[in-house]
């Protein structure tokens, strides 16, 4: 598994979101409190953020543990943003993809992360993969399950589906092909967040009382604020700075 987080609100330093809280994503890389599968998230990490006036996010990704990257420590101290998606990657089998396999994946205004695993990978998704245009398959950034799931989501976004619809449809499609999969997906365009809870924990913190609102969606709470709420399993979340909508996802039929 992995741990990930998305944030919308008034600009904050990356460190205030990802490093400083008592149970931050930084700490979750070695001491997650609610992770159900795996214990150490040290096979890469990444953070994407949006700058004012630019719809295309910047990314910083590495293939090692977040705690060993001093350049990230400097970056997190000075970079501020009002929209962020970050992830730490669970220890996995050795591969050649390096940081290309670390979330967030990106295209245009979108940032994406997958917390989980596709059961039976890669054979289980062989048929699903054939539904993608050949150019999309040849353009996969990495050869891991998350990269293919991202390609499936992106194909739907490009044909006009909204973020929540794209995530929900892909979750059900992949779960139908690989029933034991864990598919907590997270997507943002800098103005909205969409996420699925399917096989692992997902929480949100909504603070609409602030001047423009503030929303955090994460694998687990980064502090002990009682306002955190857990998203039920098999649920689709759609959020802005001020609103949260939860919709049950139907179990796939054969």
Q: Overview of this structure, please?
A:
One of its GO terms (molecular function) is hydrolase activity, acting on carbon-nitrogen (but not peptide) bonds, in linear amides. Its EC number is 3.5.1.118. Pathway: Amino-acid biosynthesis; ergothioneine biosynthesis. Keywords: Glutamine amidotransferase, Hydrolase. This protein is an alpha+beta fold and 254 residues long. It has one domain (2-248): Glutamine Phosphoribosylpyrophosphate, subunit 1, domain 1. The protein is built from seven helices and 13 strands. The protein has a seven-stranded antiparallel sheet with strand order 3-2-4-1-10-9-11. Strands 5-6-7-8-12-13 form a six-stranded antiparallel sheet, with helices on one face. A hairpin with an 8-residue loop joins strand 2 and strand 3 (58-62). The mean pLDDT is 93.
In short:
Strands 3-2-4-1-10-9-11 form a 7-stranded antiparallel sheet.
Task: Give the neighbour order of strands across the main sheet.
Answer: 3-2-4-1-10-9-11
Q: Which descriptor suits the 3D outline?
A: globular
Identify the CATH class: Alpha Beta
Runs with pLDDT <50, length 5+?
A: none
Let me know the largest β-sheet. 7 strands, antiparallel
Tally the helices: what do you get?
A: 7
Helix percent band: 10-25%
Q: Mean pLDDT, rounded to whole units?
A: 93
Give the CATH H-level superfamily: Aminohydrolase, N-terminal nucleophile (Ntn) domain
Q: How do the SSEs run, as a string of H and E?
A: EHHEEHEEEHHHHEEEEEEE
Q: How many domains in all?
A: 1
Strand content is 25-35%
Keywords: Glutamine amidotransferase, Hydrolase
InterPro entries: EgtC, EgtC-like, EgtC_Actinobacteria, Gamma-glu_amide_hydrolase, GATase_2_dom, Ntn_hydrolases_N
Catalytic activity: gamma-L-glutamyl-hercynylcysteine S-oxide + H2O = S-(hercyn-2-yl)-L-cysteine S-oxide + L-glutamate
EC number: 3.5.1.118
